[in-house]
Design goal:
The chain contains 18 helices and eleven strands. Strand 3 and strand 4 form a beta hairpin. The N terminus is likely disordered.
């Protein structure tokens, strides 16, 4: 690494660090979530115990508290049972809310970290990656991380704590039922996972089939003339029906698994209760092991029902964790990408000549392919130079090297005596004005298209740039003037290109880079753009990829090699 340059350290376990950072940044939410989970576990086991006391009181197996009538005692237990049940439901609801909030905090922190990473990636990354792949990392993979915590790890911990607390209570109330449950739960969990995997596989097959079905419609419309001419209606119809049939078959498998699961669980619950009662009554010497009085029976039946719900949830949470791991791997891969070396920003350079200089530059995007070979070029102050050559000759590559997006494999590219890659931040925006082939619109107002949300660009600078391009009056006549939200239909293609020129000159840059800016315009609009460029280019150094500009303004032609 060269002197004065910095490189960010890439973490080996970025997702874990993001989670820990989220915990540190949100201590109230974290503490509240832990307290609510603990409270929900404790409150969740109390209602059956209160119900057992009430039943024992009604059957005479428990004495009436001193100073109370039997009816008063029963009423007190009934109100207490109602209150605890309501509190348990409220605790569960609050737990889910806080889990969701924590998941959103994780999502925000993850996307922020990825966005910071995005600004540090070299241009080579974007050249090698499709935009859809990067977008899917920010959307689908980050959602997987949220799922990992919200409906994965945290929910699984809460459900596991609930099962353990219920088993502890059952152990003290009925050792026999505890032994039966500890023997049955692993088998039930295995059954739950098998059915869930079958359902998820069927749902995946259905999504694939639906995707293929949806693809048939635009494909049919796009090839309608061929289909009509060659009379292949039957083949298209057969292909469409096959996709629909695959989707139906997958949904039928999913519905079958869903339909049989609940009856299986209900049957197992009933068998456990029946077996517990039979053993407690018929087998000599085990009555004390099961502790079978009326209140205990009622409480144990309630606890048996409470065990199966979190057990089913844990099965789904494990599946969510497994699915999220793929997304986490992709995020880890993204955050582990090699970053560009960011030089320390230098002071704005003094006026010098030459303004742009290529010295024996060799460069290629791939090691085995060379775009520029031992290329040299000098552009003096105030000069207009046009790059020409066939497609792939390296014209746009020269622009990328000048803007510091890439470094040459050998040789050097300097701008006013400073290596091009050292131009960052304010230096870059004040030195270069870049006009692309098509106008890159951002979300915001018409004014925002010129300022790019840079607070250093004043209203006077915006109006002056628009005036020079002839767009000030056009923009002022919009419904809300410069504050009008910008949309694609608001301006013609020529007007968009004029806005692009205004954006490029608003900071009064020393150098203008023009990349085939009239390639997609008609002759009349092109003539208007040329007139604007003559004024915008005055007293500036201009490097262009435009034969028309060369014919209009003269200058020098250079062919990259």
């Amino acid at each position: 690494m060269r002197h004065g340059e910095k490189q960010h350290t890439v973490s080996k376990r970025p997702v874990r660090e993001i989670a820990l950072r989220t915990v540190k940044k949100n201590p109230v939410v974290t503490a509240g979530l832990a307290a609510v989970i603990a409270g929900a576990v404790i409150v969740g086991v109390l209602p059956p115990l209160v119900l057992a006391k009430a039943v024992d009181l009604l059957t005479g197996e428990a004495g009436v508290p001193g100073g109370m009538t039997p009816s008063g005692a029963v009423l007190r237990y009934a109100l207490l049972y109602f209150g605890l049940t309501a509190l348990s439901g409220g605790s569960d609801a609050l737990r889910e809310v806080l889990i969701t909030v924590f998941g959103q905090k994780i999502t925000h922190e993850t996307r922020s970290a990825m966005n910071r990473k995005l600004t540090r990636l070299p241009a080579a990354y974007f050249a090698a990656q499709e935009s859809g792949v990067t977008t899917s990392r920010f959307v689908d993979d980050v959602n997987a991380v949220e799922s990992l915590f919200s409906s994965g790890i945290i929910s699984m911990i809460a459900d596991a704590c609930q099962i353990v607390s219920i088993l502890i209570v059952i152990f003290h109330m009925s050792r026999g039922l505890f032994l039966m449950l500890t023997a049955a739960l692993p088998l039930l969990f295995f059954l739950t996972r098998v059915i869930q995997k079958q359902m998820l596989a069927a749902q995946w097959d259905n999504r694939v089939a639906v995707g293929r079905t949806n693809q048939q419609i635009p494909e049919t419309v796009r090839n309608q003339r061929t289909i009509w001419t060659l009379r292949i209606f039957a083949w298209r119809e057969k292909k469409y029906h096959r996709c629909v049939r695959d989707g139906f078959d997958a949904m039928e498998r999913s519905n079958f698994c869903d339909a049989i699961y609940s009856p299986i669980i209900m049957t197992v619950k009933a068998l456990l209760v029946a077996l517990m009662m039979v053993l407690a009554v018929t087998v000599t010497g085990v009555q004390s092991l099961f502790g079978m009085n009326a209140g205990t029976v009622v409480a144990l039946i309630a606890y048996i029902g409470k065990v199966f719900s979190p057990l089913e949830s844990i099965g789904m949470e494990i599946q969510n964790i497994q699915e999220a791991m793929a997304g986490i791997g992709r995020i880890r891969e993204f955050l582990g990408e090699t970053e560009r070396v960011i030089p320390e920003e230098a002071a704005l350079p003094e006026e010098s000549d030459p303004v742009i200089e290529f010295k024996h530059v060799t460069f290629g995007y791939e090691p085995e392919t060379t775009v520029l070979h031992d290329f040299s070029m000098t552009v003096c102050r105030g000069e207009t130079v046009t790059l020409e050559g066939r497609t792939g000759a390296g014209k746009s590559t020269c622009f990328k090297l000048i803007l510091g997006l890439y470094r040459p494999q050998s040789g050097s590219v300097t701008v006013m005596g400073i290596p091009a890659e050292k131009y960052t931040g304010t230096m870059l925006s004040r030195t270069f004005g870049y006009v692309e082939q098509s106008f890159a619109m951002i979300r915001g107002s018409v004014r925002d298209q010129i300022t790019l949300h840079d607070p250093s660009v004043t209203e006077e600078m915006v109006r002056d740039a628009l005036k020079k391009t002839g767009m000030l009056e056009v923009c002022e006549n919009l419904p809300r003037g410069l504050d009008t939200p910008c949309r694609d239909s608001l301006f013609s293609e020529g007007q968009k290109q004029l806005l692009s020129i205004a954006r490029a000159i608003v900071r009064d840059p020393e150098i203008l880079l023009l990349d085939e800016i009239t390639a997609n315009l008609d002759s009349i609009t092109e003539a208007q753009i040329m007139r604007t460029l003559r004024e915008a280019s005055a007293n500036r150094t201009v490097l262009s990829i435009s034969h028309r500009l060369y014919q209009e303004q003269g200058g020098r032609r250079v062919t990259p090699v």
